[in-house]
Amino acid sequence: MNILQKRDAPYSARELAVLAASFRLEMFDVLHQRGTGHWGGASSATEIVTALYFNRLRIDPARPQWADRDRFILSKGHASINLYTVLARRGFFPTSELPKFRTFGSILQGHPSMKLIPGVDISTGALGHGLSVGAGMALAARLAGKTYRTYVLSGEGCLDEGQTWEAMLFAAKYRPKGLVYLIDYNKVQLDGNSQDILPLDPLPDKFKAFGWNIAPERYNGNDAEAVLKSFDWIDSDDVWPKAIVYDTVKAYGVSFMEGKSAWHGAPIDDESYAKGRPELAADLARKEAAL
Questions:
Q1: Single pTM value for the model
Q2: What does the pLDDT profile of the chain (291 residues) look like in tens digits?
Q3: C-beta separation of 64 from 92 below 8 A
Q4: Which of 1, 13, 114, 230 meets the CB 3.0–4.6 Å disulfide criterion with 219?
Q5: Alpha-carbon gap, residue 17 to 33, rounded angstroms
Q6: Cβ of 112: how many Cβ atoms within 10 Å?
Q7: Which domains does the chain have, with CATH numbers?
């Protein structure tokens, strides 16, 4: 974890890959230890959230309420262990809090709380309201003469909610500058495959029909280099609001868990932990060797 000592410049794709692999391993350890939490959706979004906090967001851990900071909303709040791990390693609160995840008295409850956790811009958990809040934050920047950007990350569950599509219409009308909607599209939900529950494709075409500036390609959200490429697209023009669809894998990193709805939020039992952890450790070792 010595790579975390670097603070003078944005992290490169290879460095971000190492960070994401180390965070994924740390999340796996905590979720097994606690016997609770959502591994599937946290793992699928790890590269995206890591790249945001270590390459993209204009933030200051020493000043979590800095008025000019970029905003981030984890609309899929059940993937909280992902955000908590990144926030802790970014310096917003001590890493010693992570093993207390979902314990009585801990600041790190099942869903992020803006009242308890430095660096959390809005409490989330009820799927679908993240984009509505994000649109409001982006409009607030315009009214206050601020230049910060607002990034909202969601999965298919949020896109199943009517409120999300209302927010998309609202944002398309008022076009708040700096609003970026990131879709962790892992194709699996709590009850099964998204295609069987509520089909969303062709998703990019739907964003386009709603008047959004949609990225011209779907990026591999589990590849740090592809995520950085998507960030370059964000900066390529001044047409707002923007949306990016990332193709990801549910429970990424553990082969027998990948793409299975059972691992949306199932406890990581001892047998699964013993079988899965070596895969995550090996992936981290490979990426460290590639630096």
A1: 0.97
A2: 577 766 666 999 999 999 999 999 999 999 999 999 999 999 999 999 999 999 999 999 999 999 999 999 999 999 999 999 999 999 999 999 999 999 999 999 999 999 999 999 999 988 999 999 999 999 999 999 999 999 999 999 999 999 999 999 999 999 999 999 999 999 999 888 999 999 999 999 999 999 999 999 999 999 999 999 999 999 999 999 999 999 999 999 999 999 999 999 999 999 999 999 999 999 999 999 998
A3: yes
A4: 230
A5: 24
A6: 25
A7: 10-289 (3.40.50.970)
Whose tokens are 């960070």? That residue is: 19
* Helix residue spans in the chain (DSSP H): 13-34, 39-44, 46-51, 80-90, 130-144, 156-159, 162-174, 194-197, 203-209, 224-234, 270-289
Residues listed for the chain: 291
The one-letter amino acid code at 158 reads C
Tokens of 241: 């609001």
3 state DSSP class of 50: helix
